[in-house]
Design a protein that fits this description.
By secondary structure, the protein is of the alpha+beta class. The protein is built from 3 helices and 10 strands; from the N terminus they run H-E-E-E-E-E-E-E-E-E-E-H-H. It folds into 2 domains: 145 residues, Immunoglobulin-like (Sandwich), CATH 2.60.40; 42 residues, no CATH class.
Length: 224
């Protein structure tokens, strides 16, 4: 009897959670997942450098009509649609979303997009848009499922932007950037974030082993 009860609980939970439209965050290649800051805490991602481009994909495990949105309030130039013409973003619609699916830009009460599924959708990736880690600090992207609520997000993607290690601006943290850090090694007159070409990563006024450790965390990572 106990086993039957457990099985019933399992199947009822599966039925309740099976149908879902959600998001996943990848690096700019659209394939490599961005790691969570803590594997036990969903939707809170590990630190990314200023200048990093990310890809946010809306996917579904059900082939049913759906509409929702994504909204950011901190900045107006963090989220980017694809193929936008001032209103619709045709390049942000993926084939699985169905015929006549579309994405529109919205600017109030923040900036973002609304997604509308099309006819005869398929399970898979439905919509795609890009994220630009522009400034140091936190940024939240609220994700809405309008079948659930038009005012409260179903979850929020949380990002934290840190200082770039791409000192030479060639879009990758490599030996050229290490050379810049080495040039300022043990410099003690980094008066602010713009001095020492940004190599004083912990902003303590000097370039030391702490900055080297922070630099190495992003070795060979791309900012575009």
């Amino acid at each position: 009897m106990k086993k039957i009860a457990i099985l019933l609980l399992f199947f009822s939970t599966t039925l309740l959670t099976w149908g879902a439209v959600s998001t996943r965050v990848c690096l700019s290649d659209g394939n490599t997942p961005l790691e969570l800051a803590d594997p036990n805490i969903p939707f809170v991602y590990r630190d990314v450098m200023v200048g990093t481009r990310l890809t946010i994909i809306v996917d579904s495990n059900v082939a049913e009509y759906w509409y929702g949105g994504a909204l950011v309030t901190e900045e107006t130039d963090i989220l980017y649609g694809r193929g936008c013409d001032g209103l619709e973003c045709s390049g942000s619609c993926l084939p699985a979303a169905g015929d006549f699916a579309y994405v529109v830009e919205i600017e109030y009460p923040g900036y973002g997009f609304e997604f509308y599924g099309g006819e005869e959708p398929n399970v898979g990736d439905w919509f795609i848009f890009d994220y630009n880690a522009k400034d140091i600090g936190n940024c939240n992207v609220a994700f809405y499922d309008y079948d659930v609520s038009e005012t409260e997000p179903v979850h929020t993607l949380t990002f934290h932007h840190v200082r770039t290690r791409d000192f030479d601006g060639n879009t990758q943290v490599d030996f050229a950037d290490f050379a810049v850090l080495a040039f300022y090694w043990q410099e003690v007159n980094c008066g602010d974030a713009n001095d020492c070409e940004g190599t004083d990563l912990d902003i303590n006024g000097s370039v030391d082993v702490n900055d080297l450790m922070l630099f190495c965390e992003y070795w060979l990572e791309k900012t575009e």
